[in-house]
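Please check this one:

***
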Amino acid sequence: MRFRGKLVEIGCIHHFTRVIGTVSKLIKQCVLRITPANWYFILSEKLVNGGVQIWCDLPQGHFFDEYAMEGVCQEANEIYLELAPENLVKALKTAQNAKWIKIKLTKKNTPYLTVEVDLPTLSAHSRTVVHDIPVYVVPRRLWPEYEEPKLPDFDVSIVMPQLKLLRNIVDKMKNLSNYVALSANQNGEMKLMVETDMVSVSTHFRDLLNPAVNRGDDSEEPDPEVFSEARIDIRKLAQFLVGQQINYTRVICNIVHRRVVHFLLLHDDVSLQYFMPVVAS
């Protein structure tokens, strides 16, 4: 089992750092799945127990100039590592002016993801900083727990307003309640509402885009005016909005009425899925 990759282009280094920074803001511990074509950052908690699920997909060819890996065996050419993404961010932050970064899997009594950073100097001598990030190798029998989440049949799919605007609104709403009702319809409308015994506050958005919703052959088209709603933890929503460090081209919110909220964040070379559980009224 081997892995070695090298980033040279400074723009790729910065973008890679921002992506990992976003992941670190959302989760403390995750599984890094390394394949010949992609890196995946995965968190798989049970939604029914109030957990969240995250699936972040990075095509390695968009970031790495050199990339070589050898999985656990020929039939399963993949590597699964459990790590704290914050440790990887700390290593990458020392590389903002680096000539190159090498990331490799090493073993020094225990497994590490070793990050080597070649920094510029005023002399002819090179200056290399090495970070050893402890990892746990996930055994193959546990891999099925980290498969890509299956998407349910959504009742509503809507393109969200600017995240910065939503962040400001949610930041004010979280001082009023622990929960927010997020609702939308297929007519381009979305609402955020908090209610207490003393006050009810809501924000409305109109003229948003509705991506097509895939439905079964026997499913009837719902009334586009009807709202589907999900009551969620407002602090988890705020954490999700604050953690974004990438200018996504599109952020889509999918809702299964009173069951789950699914956020899909899309960039040219990155996609991030975030499943947020619904809280009972």
User: Anything to note?
Assistant: The longest helix spans residues 10-26. The first strand starts at residue 2 and ends at 7. The chain has two domains: 2-146, 156-265. The domain at 2-146 is CATH 3.70.10.10 (Proliferating Cell Nuclear Antigen).
